[in-house]
């Protein structure tokens, strides 16, 4: 490196020439110890004393068809704890990083960053003493472009039959049957497994999921349709399948974020996505101020664990709101108090997002005298044309949650679309029958594109490094 300090902003373009990657947009984060690179379909190979790793990387978050296969020597396997507290055993490689004309070797861990805005995290151990990181600046080094990948082979949907597992406790409902029908029509095998009856052998060398007395096989992909009552255990089962190398349509981490309504609202607010004014508290002395934070007119009080409109109550006056809040507190329940958007007229819009696209949208209207628009509560539905802003908000909300498939519920307000909820297991019946769109096929197509080319467990017994 030269004697002049290399200055980096909070985001930069870089290249990884040893891996054949001419351009990666990375987040520079000195709060993270180790650099991390997006990698899927990890395949360890080579002798035990000189292990190698082959993996697949999609460098452009907005272009899932661009796929590069990389290989590198493995220098370690290490437990890494992410910012959300999740601990993962990762492969560690040495490779060369290049900013402009400057290059040097760094250690990089490999992990799935499919739902992240940046395919690489540049941590503090990759920053040398001769460098300066300016967290208020952006792209201080030469700006590259994904156009540098022109001529690289494009990823096509896999043509091989896939073995898919659908985690559900309701194998006979519309959504389960449609997914099974479409998968089999496209030549795949889809097996339904009751999440509750799964149990796990948790170890570093050969993780397994057992079911009815025997180990389940290796699957190419998992479709999680986990009910609210099974969230905790369902996430544990899903993490086990992730450890076994299967592609999960929605990750355990993303499902957990979407199911925690308070955390979901905090995430949406952090990314400046519109939503009804929302307040949360636990002290009974805060009742009046809590209600005022959500607005001084009508408010909605909802349980954090509510689904399908259950546990959601409208209070049309401050007095009624105070009584409701006190009653919910008496039950020691966790709840939100939220602004009531009157101009929505008891209607909301369900946007069904798969990947980076809204594949269907319907407007749901509550029954007469009912402010909740849920179809399970007698609401009606019809096709609706989204505005560009509504479409953009739905896609961004799905990304913020880290989901690949989501049902995003919006309200049309005088100040623009407001997000009510991001559902990680949206039903297919209402959206398909109303919009006449084959949403199940879009979900299976997404799996065909993202299922790993090589499906192996992260580690085998013969690879003790």
TrEMBL record:
<feature type="binding site">
    <location>
        <position position="348"/>
    </location>
    <ligand>
        <name>ATP</name>
    </ligand>
</feature>
<dbReference type="Pfam" id="PF08443">
    <property type="entry name" value="RimK"/>
</dbReference>
<keyword id="KW-0067">ATP-binding</keyword>
<dbReference type="InterPro" id="IPR013815">
    <property type="entry name" value="ATP_grasp_subdomain_1"/>
</dbReference>
<comment type="similarity">
    <text>In the C-terminal section; belongs to the RimK family.</text>
</comment>
<feature type="binding site">
    <location>
        <position position="409"/>
    </location>
    <ligand>
        <name>Mg(2+) 1</name>
    </ligand>
</feature>
<dbReference type="InterPro" id="IPR021109">
    <property type="entry name" value="Peptidase_aspartic_dom_sf"/>
</dbReference>
<protein>
    <recommendedName>
        <fullName>Probable alpha-L-glutamate ligase</fullName>
        <ecNumber>6.3.2.-</ecNumber>
    </recommendedName>
</protein>
<dbReference type="Pfam" id="PF05618">
    <property type="entry name" value="Zn_protease"/>
</dbReference>
<dbReference type="InterPro" id="IPR004666">
    <property type="entry name" value="Rp_bS6_RimK/Lys_biosynth_LsyX"/>
</dbReference>
<keyword id="KW-0648">Protein biosynthesis</keyword>
<dbReference type="GO" id="GO:0005524">
    <property type="term" value="F:ATP binding"/>
</dbReference>
<feature type="binding site">
    <location>
        <position position="423"/>
    </location>
    <ligand>
        <name>Mg(2+) 2</name>
    </ligand>
</feature>
<dbReference type="GO" id="GO:0046872">
    <property type="term" value="F:metal ion binding"/>
</dbReference>
<keyword id="KW-0479">Metal-binding</keyword>
<keyword id="KW-0436">Ligase</keyword>
<dbReference type="InterPro" id="IPR041107">
    <property type="entry name" value="Rimk_N"/>
</dbReference>
<keyword id="KW-0460">Magnesium</keyword>
<keyword id="KW-0547">Nucleotide-binding</keyword>
<feature type="binding site">
    <location>
        <position position="302"/>
    </location>
    <ligand>
        <name>ATP</name>
    </ligand>
</feature>
<dbReference type="InterPro" id="IPR013651">
    <property type="entry name" value="ATP-grasp_RimK-type"/>
</dbReference>
<dbReference type="Pfam" id="PF18030">
    <property type="entry name" value="Rimk_N"/>
</dbReference>
<feature type="domain" description="ATP-grasp">
    <location>
        <begin position="265"/>
        <end position="448"/>
    </location>
</feature>
<feature type="binding site">
    <location>
        <begin position="372"/>
        <end position="374"/>
    </location>
    <ligand>
        <name>ATP</name>
    </ligand>
</feature>
<feature type="binding site">
    <location>
        <position position="423"/>
    </location>
    <ligand>
        <name>Mn(2+) 2</name>
    </ligand>
</feature>
<dbReference type="InterPro" id="IPR011761">
    <property type="entry name" value="ATP-grasp"/>
</dbReference>
<dbReference type="InterPro" id="IPR008503">
    <property type="entry name" value="Asp_endopeptidase"/>
</dbReference>
<comment type="similarity">
    <text>Belongs to the RimK family.</text>
</comment>
<dbReference type="GO" id="GO:0009432">
    <property type="term" value="P:SOS response"/>
</dbReference>
<feature type="binding site">
    <location>
        <position position="421"/>
    </location>
    <ligand>
        <name>Mg(2+) 2</name>
    </ligand>
</feature>
<dbReference type="GO" id="GO:0005737">
    <property type="term" value="C:cytoplasm"/>
</dbReference>
<feature type="binding site">
    <location>
        <position position="409"/>
    </location>
    <ligand>
        <name>Mn(2+) 1</name>
    </ligand>
</feature>
<keyword id="KW-0464">Manganese</keyword>
<feature type="binding site">
    <location>
        <position position="421"/>
    </location>
    <ligand>
        <name>Mn(2+) 2</name>
    </ligand>
</feature>
<feature type="binding site">
    <location>
        <begin position="339"/>
        <end position="340"/>
    </location>
    <ligand>
        <name>ATP</name>
    </ligand>
</feature>
<feature type="binding site">
    <location>
        <position position="421"/>
    </location>
    <ligand>
        <name>Mg(2+) 1</name>
    </ligand>
</feature>
<feature type="binding site">
    <location>
        <position position="421"/>
    </location>
    <ligand>
        <name>Mn(2+) 1</name>
    </ligand>
</feature>
<dbReference type="GO" id="GO:0018169">
    <property type="term" value="F:ribosomal S6-glutamic acid ligase activity"/>
</dbReference>
<dbReference type="InterPro" id="IPR023533">
    <property type="entry name" value="RimK"/>
</dbReference>
<dbReference type="GO" id="GO:0006412">
    <property type="term" value="P:translation"/>
</dbReference>
């Amino acid at each position: 490196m030269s004697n002049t300090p290399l200055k980096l902003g909070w985001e930069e373009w870089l290249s990884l020439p040893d891996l054949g990657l001419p351009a990666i947009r990375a987040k520079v984060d000195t709060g993270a110890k180790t650099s991390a690179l997006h990698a899927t379909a990890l395949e360890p190979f080579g002798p035990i004393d000189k292990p190698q790793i082959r993996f697949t990387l999609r460098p452009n978050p907005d272009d899932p068809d661009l796929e590069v296969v990389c290989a590198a020597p493995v220098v370690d396997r290490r437990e890494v704890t992410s910012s959300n507290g999740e601990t993962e055993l990762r492969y560690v490689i040495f490779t060369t990083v290049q900013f402009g004309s400057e290059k040097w070797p760094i250690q990089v861990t490999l992990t799935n960053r499919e739902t992240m805005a940046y395919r690489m995290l540049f941590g503090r151990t990759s920053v040398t003493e001769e460098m300066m990181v300016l967290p208020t600046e952006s792209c201080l080094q030469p700006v590259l472009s994904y156009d540098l990948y022109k001529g690289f082979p494009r990823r096509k949907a896999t043509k091989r039959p896939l073995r898919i597992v659908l985690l559900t406790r309701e194998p006979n409902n519309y959504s389960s049957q449609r997914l099974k029908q479409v998968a089999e029509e496209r030549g795949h095998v889809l097996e339904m497994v009751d999440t509750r009856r799964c149990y796990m052998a948790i170890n570093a060398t050969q993780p397994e999921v057992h079911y009815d007395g025997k180990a389940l096989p290796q699957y190419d992909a998992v479709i999680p349709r986990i009910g609210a009552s099974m969230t905790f255990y369902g996430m544990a089962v899903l993490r086990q399948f992730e450890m076994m190398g299967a592609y999960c349509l929605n990750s355990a981490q993303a499902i957990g974020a979407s199911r925690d309504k308070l955390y979901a609202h905090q995430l949406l607010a952090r990314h400046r996505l519109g939503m009804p004014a929302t307040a949360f508290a636990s002290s009974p002395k805060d009742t009046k101020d809590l209600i005022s934070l959500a607005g001084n007119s009508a408010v909605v009080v909802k349980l954090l664990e509510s689904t399908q409109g259950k546990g959601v109550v409208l209070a049309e006056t401050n007095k009624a709101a105070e009584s409701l809040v006190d009653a919910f507190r008496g039950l020691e329940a966790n709840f939100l108090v939220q602004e009531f958007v009157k101009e929505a007229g008891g209607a909301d819009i369900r946007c069904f997002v798969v990947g980076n696209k809204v594949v269907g949208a319907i407007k749901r209207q509550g029954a007469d005298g009912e402010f909740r628009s849920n179809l399970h509560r007698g609401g009606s539905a019809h096709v609706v044309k989204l505005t560009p802003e509504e479409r953009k908000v739905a896609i961004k909300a799905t990304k913020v949650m880290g989901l690949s498939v989501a049902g995003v519920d919006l309200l049309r307000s005088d100040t623009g679309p407001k997000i009510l909820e991001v559902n990680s297991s949206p039903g297919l019946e209402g959206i398909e029958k109303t919009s006449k769109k084959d949403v199940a096929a879009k979900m299976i197509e997404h799996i065909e594109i993202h299922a790993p080319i090589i499906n192996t467990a992260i580690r085998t017994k013969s690879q003790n490094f």
